[in-house]
Amino acid sequence: MGSLKIYVGCSGFSYNEWRGIFYPQRLPKELWLEYYKRFFSTLELNFSFYKFPSQSITRNLVLKAPHLRFSIKAHQKFTHRRDYSKQDVEYFLKGIEPIVEKDNLIAILFQFPESFGMNEENWEYLEKLHYDFGEYTQVFELRNKSWHMREFFRWLDERNITIANIDAPKELGWAIGPWISTGEINYVRLHGRNPENPYDYLYTEEELEEILRKVKKIYQEKPTFVFFNNTVGAKCVANAIKFKQLLGVWNENIPIPNAIKRMWITKEFE
User: Fold this and answer.
1) Could you give the residue ranges of the DSSP H alpha helices within 65-204?
2) Which residues make Cβ contacts (< 8 Å) with residue 78, sequence separation at least 6?
3) Taking the domains of the chain in order of start, what are their residue ranges?
């Protein structure tokens, strides 16, 4: 089992509410990343959706965690506002250079809103975006179900673009299945299943086993990245550790914080 190229991490790490649950109460914020990297080898960076990443920030991340591999969410200008310029592309790519130079970039994640449906104009937009980000590994998260068609999957695969396979509450109506594999890597984002607030949800062990089966189905010997985005109350940490245990890749010598262990127990007795 340990030889599978499946890597597990969380979506973001710098949440104040994780203090005392995952991070020790007195651990200074500047040491959080070094603490996180004891548990995981990959991290999805989300701050870049709200503000363009600067070299000073990304250089600092690489210095603190030189062996951590990062996936970086594209700024909302590229996915939600869709009014970017050539300069915006250059500015964004310049900001992530320290991660790229260290060869620690997994991919750039483009997460589109559910309102972004399949039509000729939007498809052309994806084509333009793909070429503007050229040589970088790209992951498209398309929440609108209209994109789920064989012709589009083939188009992605021909361009080496990875589709993000997602898990989310069925009530939201997002494209949550069937999971497929396109591009050189696989990418999975687990948003939670609470219709009121998806990110405030703890997956049961049974649900994680079901997700693992789906991951193995799309695996195809490709590097596969699984990110937990149910970040409320550090539930993603509890689920990501448990998922690594199910995969057989968890290092038993790493002490798990008590508050994280308690989450498993609580869920088991609910």
Assistant:
1) 76, 86-95, 97-101, 120-132, 150-158
2) 84, 88, 92, 110, 129
3) 6-269
Would you state the structure tokens that stand for residue 123, as one six-digit string?
Answer: 């498809």
233 φψ region: left (φ > 0), alpha (ψ -120 to 50), beta (else): left
If you search the block for the tokens 């790209």, which residue do you land on? 138
Residues 6+ apart with CB under 8 A from 94: 55
79 secondary structure, DSSP code: I
- The tokens describing 199, both together, are 């990110």
Beta bridge partners of 166: 189
Give me the amino acid identity at 244.
Answer: K
Name the band, by pLDDT with cuts 50, 70 and 90, for residue 270: low
Angle at 189 between CA 186 and CA 191, to 5 degrees: 165
Query: What is the CATH number assigned to the segment(s) 6-269?
Result: 3.20.20.410
Contact (CB, 8 A) for 163 and 138: no
How many CA atoms does the CB half-sphere of 234 hold within 13 Å? Answer: 25
pTM, whole model, 2 decimals? 0.96
Read off the pLDDT of residues 225-257 as tens digits, 9 standing for 90 and up.
Answer: 999 999 999 999 999 999 999 999 999 999 999
Which residue carries 């999805």 as its tokens? 44
